[in-house]
Structures are given as C-alpha cells and as structure tokens.
C-alpha cells in the first residue's frame, strides 16, 4: 500500500489560520463575544424568571451599565498582558464602530497584527506578509459581526439570529443560567453561562465546524459606569491550545485617526534575484508527487520540501541547533494527524538555485519541529518551504518539466484562465464537484502526495459505507487512517479529472477534521496540470500539463512499508481484508529479500513501494518474524477490491518503526 504523503498544515499562533472570533476582553465590535461586555451587580436578591433568551440577554446589558449606554459607545482602546501556550507577551487594541479594529500582539520574539478597515479583515504575520480574509467563511462571519454590532441579536423579529433560553446547567459546581445564540448564515453556535444571583457571566462556548472555544471570565470591575471582566482564559479544542488575557487599561473612546485601521503594506521582501533576472526557474526533484529543492542555510545545503499546504515554513529542530540557530518559545501546532509541539527559530536567510548565481531570501522566522528529518527518507528533508516563502512570489509549477518558476509579485504575467481561490488556513481553495453531486471547496497542497476527503464531508455524503483499501499515514501530529476509493470524475476550475483516486478520512483528526473544506488535493491530481499560484491576488490557474492524461496509480494491496531502526524496509501496517493480509503479512515483519534479491540491493523504502505499484505482478517476499524465516507471495491486483466495514476497528500500527513522513 502506497503511503499518501500529506503536507504540514501547522498553525502556531492564535490568529494564524484560526477563524474563530477575536476573544479579547472588551472587544465591542466582534461577533459572539458580546457576553464579555455583560456583567452583573452583586447582590443577594434572586433574579426574576426570564421568559426567553432575549429577556435574559437584555437583563445582562442592563445589569452591566444599561443597554442604551452600550449602544451609544463608539469604540475603545485597551491593553494588557497575554499568554498563548508557552509564549508570554502584551497586546494593544483599538476599535471603532462599525467593524473597525486593530490588534497588535507582541511576544518579544515576534509581533503580529490583525484588524479590519471597515471594508475587509486583514492579518499581518511575524514576517510582515499581509493576508486579506476573503474566504467565504470569513465573509459570512464578518457579516454576522456587522449585525451583532447593530444589536440585531436582541430583536426577536430578526430573520438572522435566534436566542434560546436553555435549562440551567452545572459549571464547575456552579449552577448557571444558559442562553444559546444561533444564526441562519452558518452553523456557528454560542452558549453563554450566567450566575443566577449576580447575573455575572461565568463562561461562554463557541462551536464552529473546525473547532470549539471554551472561555471563562472573572475579575469584574466597574469602568466608567460599565462592568467588565479583566481576566479571561480560553481553551480551544481540538487544537489543544490555551490563551490567557489580563486587561490592564481600558478607555471608552474611539480613535480619531482612521489610518490606524488601514490594511498595512506588506513588508519589503528581502530578496536578491539572480543576475539573470526574474523569473527564477529552479529544477526540482520529483518523488512520489513531492517537490524537493536544494536549499542552503548558513552555507549548509540540504533538501527542502515545497509545500503550499504548510501555513509556515519549517526547519527541523535538531538541524537548527546544528546550525547554531537555537529554537525558542513553545507553542501548540496542529496538522495532518493531530496536534504537536513546536518552537520558533530565526533563520538568517535561504539560498536557492545555482551556487554561482542564486536566489537569496533574507531573514525569516520559521517554525521549528522535532523529528522532521528523522521521519523522512529518500530524500531526507531538513525543512519545508511553506507560506512564508511561497507568498513572496507568483509561483509556476510545471510538473512535466520538473521545474518551479518564481516571479516577482509585480511582474507582468501571461494571459491565463485565473480562478479566484481565497486562502483558508493559508491554502488556496477552489470550488469543485465530485461525481456531479458532491460539491465543496478543495485546498491545493503541493506537499501532499495523495488527495483526500475530510471526515465531515465524508460523513455528509455517506462515503464511509463504500468499499476501498485501508491506508495509514503519519503526520507530525500522529497517525491518520483513510480508505482509498475510486470516483468517476472531479470537476475543478473548469477542468475535468477522470477516475480520480481519493482517500476518505476515517477519523476527524488534525486537518482531516476541517468542516469547511471538502478535501485536500495533492500531487497525484495536481501533477496533471501546469499550476500557477498568485498569493497577493488569491487566485490560481490550472492548465492541462504534459501529464494530464496520466492515469492515477492505485494502491491495491493494503501494505505499508516503513523503515526499521537499522534503516532497512519493514512492514509497518497491514490493512484488514486486503491482499497483503490475505497473503499472511503482519506488522513488524522485516523484509529480507524480494524475488530472491537481497533487500539491501534495493534503493531503500521508496524502491519497495514502487514495486507494489506494479499492478498484475506477483512478488515473493522473504520475511523475518521474530526467530522465524517466512516466505509470502503477494499478487498485486489492478484496482482496489477489498471492502472494509466502516465500524471495523483498525489494527495497531507498529510504534517502534520509523514510518515515512506525511508532512
């Protein structure tokens, strides 16, 4: 069974790639945080019964200073301290009605800024790159923010919002009144928990398709006639992130200078182009759908993976230390397979291309991840060129010619059939339709070997009931199980892909749990095209390439080949009911020889995996299982034939094997 390589979709900072509403302490103009502004006066009197959620919410506004006073506010300035996972820093925020905001978060090692100029929301990352929030989900949430800012949620006649009074609940041993807020524009839901005696807000919960944010509030104070919580703690699932905020200053006055909310210009890219002038075209090594480029850091040249699915560029943690680039901080990231820990490393520069006339990229802050090199092979990679690198250019990927061309963002480009592809999690996303009936948005992921469908999309379309071949993949966040299936057609950006093979995620782990995307398109589909990526304008162009009619390679045997501690190939996983299981393979079998040729004569794990893709052939494997020497014949069918039950418990994957990297 060929292992589908998946790219590292890592989110390391609170805002980057995370589309939940901004949850600072007194953010007047952002949706679903209205309860932060609601606090009650203490007292021994029992509160009256509330007829519905609207009455309860109005009572909170009145108890916290009066609804008319809240409606009359024009803006605010606030500052304080914050801690995100293992990083501590400070923040400043300005707001002005309607919808204008600017938030600056300074962690010392880096600073990031986000805001809204009244027309569009934007984000500027630690490397100075600016991203406009143009994806459909962000646009909908911004429209909800506008309506909440106008207090439409308090109108029982609203056609958008619905407030419901739910039964009281116990929260940390405390009985709370509960209001539930829904809307008809998306599936987001929020719950607000209030102390029945004081009407103070105790907690809130916001649920979105991809995540859930639980918040606790305390340290309430009166500030110019309004009562506000000065301390807030947020927990984000399934990202396993924690954020704590301490408010130290609050002024109820809107900034006079509108320029403070303006979209900032992107930082001047520290680029030095080759003397041959732009574009800079680089030949790449193509291995199983992956694009590998030689990159020099501090004079040391190693293989790096080009990955449009990586929200940040990445460097291996041990490699960074070898170069004297000491990783700092600690933050939680998430990606394919689940969550993982990471640090940050400042890199003095990257050098690509010919040694006599290279492309030089100036200093950047990269994510540092442990095990990146150790869990990769043939070629071993020491870094990933993700969004921080790719967004500096307009990128052309010619899979047939095995060449990547990098154009300046302001370059005059040829006339192309551009398609709008707003970034989501810093990945280009295109609308597509599978088998004429299953429509959704698909991310474009240069770092993924194989294409896959996310678990929520698969559930909605009952795909888990279909037969296929079980697969296992390893990401930095852990293992992910999929079932490979063949479909009739995929329509994407005016192009028709016939008979695509896609993996269906069996669990909602890591990026496979994205509820606002249908799936992720990797190299097995993208390599059919001449692909253009324009980050500044958030658009792509797909032209049929030299490999457009190349048939997809099936993964018919249900056998995962990994690498043992001695570096030789071994069996890491056997899919239930697949041909490999029927032939008697067991996870942990060491491969001694294939067809009489010693395994040491083969060019590593990839060579063995290539043999498994030769449909119709039968192979004789000599195996070592403990003290036993065994021989097994494996015949490779042309198409997946095994039918696996959706309820079947998957067998364990050998933990002590070094599985191929699915980054």
Q: Would you kindly provide a written description of the structure presented here, covering whatever features stand out?
A:
With 663 residues, this protein is mostly beta strands. It folds into 4 domains: 34-261, Clam (outer membrane lipoprotein receptor (LolB), chain A), CATH 2.50.20.10; 271-407, Cathepsin D, subunit A, domain 1; 414-530, Cathepsin D, subunit A, domain 1; 559-635, PDZ domain (Pdz3 Domain, Roll), CATH 2.30.42. The protein has 9 helices and 46 strands. The two termini are 18 Å apart. Mean pLDDT is 84; it is low at 1-47 and 640-663. Keywords: Hydrolase, Protease.
What secondary-structure arrangement, pairings included, does this model have?
Blueprint: H1 53-63, H2 67-72, E1 75-84, E2 87-96, E3 100-106, E4 111-116, E5 121-124, E6 130-132, H3 136-149, E7 161-171, E8 174-183, E9 189-194, E10 201-207, E11 212-223, E12 226-237, E13 241-251, E14 271-272, E15 280-283, E16 285-287, E17 290-297, E18 300-306, E19 314-316, H4 317-322, E20 328-335, E21 338-347, E22 350-352, E23 359-361, E24 364-369, E25 381-385, H5 387-390, E26 393-398, E27 403-408, E28 419-420, E29 423-424, E30 427-434, E31 438-444, E32 452-453, H6 455-460, E33 469-475, E34 478-486, E35 489-492, E36 495-498, E37 501-505, E38 519-521, H7 523-526, E39 529-534, E40 539-544, E41 559-563, E42 569-574, H8 579-583, E43 590-594, E44 597-598, H9 604-612, E45 618-625, E46 628-635
Parallel strand pairs: 18-25, 19-24, 31-38, 32-37
Antiparallel strand pairs: 1-2, 1-13, 2-3, 3-4, 4-5, 5-6, 7-8, 8-9, 9-10, 10-11, 11-12, 12-13, 14-23, 15-27, 16-17, 17-18, 17-22, 19-25, 20-21, 21-24, 22-23, 26-27, 26-39, 28-40, 29-30, 30-31, 30-35, 32-38, 33-34, 34-37, 35-36, 39-40, 41-42, 43-44, 43-45, 45-46
């Amino acid at each position: 069974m060929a292992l589908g390589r998946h790219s590292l979709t890592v989110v390391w900072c609170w805002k980057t790639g995370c589309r939940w509403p901004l949850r600072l302490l007194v953010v007047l103009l952002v949706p679903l945080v209205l309860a932060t502004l609601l606090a009650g006066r203490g007292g021994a009197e029992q509160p009256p019964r509330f007829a519905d959620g609207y009455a309860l919410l109005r009572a909170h506004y009145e108890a916290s200073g009066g609804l008319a006073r809240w409606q009359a506010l024009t803006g605010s300035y606030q500052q304080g301290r914050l801690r995100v996972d293992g990083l501590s820093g400070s923040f400043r925020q300005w707001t002005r009605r309607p919808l204008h905001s600017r938030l600056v978060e300074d962690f010392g090692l880096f600073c990031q800024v986000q805001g809204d100029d009244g027309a569009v929301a934007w984000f500027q990352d630690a490397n100075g790159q600016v991203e406009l929030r143009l994806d459909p989900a962000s646009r909908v949430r911004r429209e909800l923010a506008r309506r909440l800012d106008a207090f439409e949620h308090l109108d029982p006649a609203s056609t958008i919002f619905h407030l419901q009074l739910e039964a009281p609940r116990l929260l940390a041993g405390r009985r709370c009144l509960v209001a539930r807020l829904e809307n008809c524009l998306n599936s987001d839901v929020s719950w607000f928990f209030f102390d029945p005696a004081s009407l103070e807000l105790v907690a809130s919960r916001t649920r979105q398709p991809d995540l859930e944010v639980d918040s606790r509030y305390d340290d309430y104070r009166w500030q110019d006639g309004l009562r506000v919580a000065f301390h807030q703690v947020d927990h984000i699932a399934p990202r396993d992130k924690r954020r704590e905020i301490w408010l130290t200053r609050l002024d109820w006055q809107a900034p006079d200078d509108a320029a403070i909310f303006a979209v900032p210009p992107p930082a001047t890219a520290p680029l030095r182009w080759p003397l041959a002038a732009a574009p800079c075209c680089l030949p790449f090594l193509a291995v199983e759908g992956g694009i590998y480029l030689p990159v020099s850091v501090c004079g040391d040249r190693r293989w790096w993976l080009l990955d449009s699915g990586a929200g940040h560029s990445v460097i291996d943690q041990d490699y960074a230390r070898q170069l004297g680039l000491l990783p700092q901080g600690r933050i939680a990231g998430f990606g394919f397979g689940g969550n993982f820990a990471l640090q940050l490393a400042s890199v003095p520069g990257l050098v690509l291309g010919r040694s006599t006339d290279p492309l030089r990229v100036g200093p950047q802050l990269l994510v540092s991840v442990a095990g990146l090199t150790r869990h990769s092979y043939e070629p071993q990679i020491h870094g990933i060129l993700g969004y921080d690198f790719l967004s500096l250019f307009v990128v052309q990927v010619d899979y047939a010619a095995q060449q990547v061309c990098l154009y300046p963002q302001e370059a005059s480009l040829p006339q192309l059939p551009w398609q709008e592809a707003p970034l989501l999690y810093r990945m280009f996303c295109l609308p597509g339709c599978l088998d004429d009936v299953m429509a959704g948005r698909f991310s474009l992921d240069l770092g993924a070997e194989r294409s896959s469908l996310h678990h929520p999309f698969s559930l909605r379309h009952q795909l888990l009931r279909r037969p296929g071949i079980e697969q296992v993949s390893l990401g930095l966040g852990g293992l992910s199980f999929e079932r490979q299936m063949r479909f009739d057609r995929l329509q994407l950006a005016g192009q028709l892909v016939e008979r695509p093979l896609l993996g269906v995620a069996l669990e909602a782990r890591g990026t496979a749990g994205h509820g606002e995307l249908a799936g992720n398109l990797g190299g097995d589909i993208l390599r059919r095209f001449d692909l253009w990526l324009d980050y500044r304008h958030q658009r792509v162009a797909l032209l049929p390439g030299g490999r457009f009619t190349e048939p997809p390679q099936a993964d018919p045997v249900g056998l995962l080949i990994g690498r043992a501690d001695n570096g030789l190939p071994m069996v890491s996983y056997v899919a239930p009911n697949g041909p490999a299981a029927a032939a008697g393979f067991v996870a942990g079998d060491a491969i001694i020889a294939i067809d009489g040729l010693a395994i040491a004569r083969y060019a590593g794990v990839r060579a063995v995996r290539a043999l498994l893709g030769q449909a119709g052939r039968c192979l004789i494997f000599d195996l070592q299982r403990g003290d036993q020497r065994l021989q097994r014949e494996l015949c490779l069918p042309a198409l997946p034939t095994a039918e696996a039950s959706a309820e079947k418990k998957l067998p364990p994957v050998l933990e002590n094997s070094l599985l191929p990297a699915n980054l």
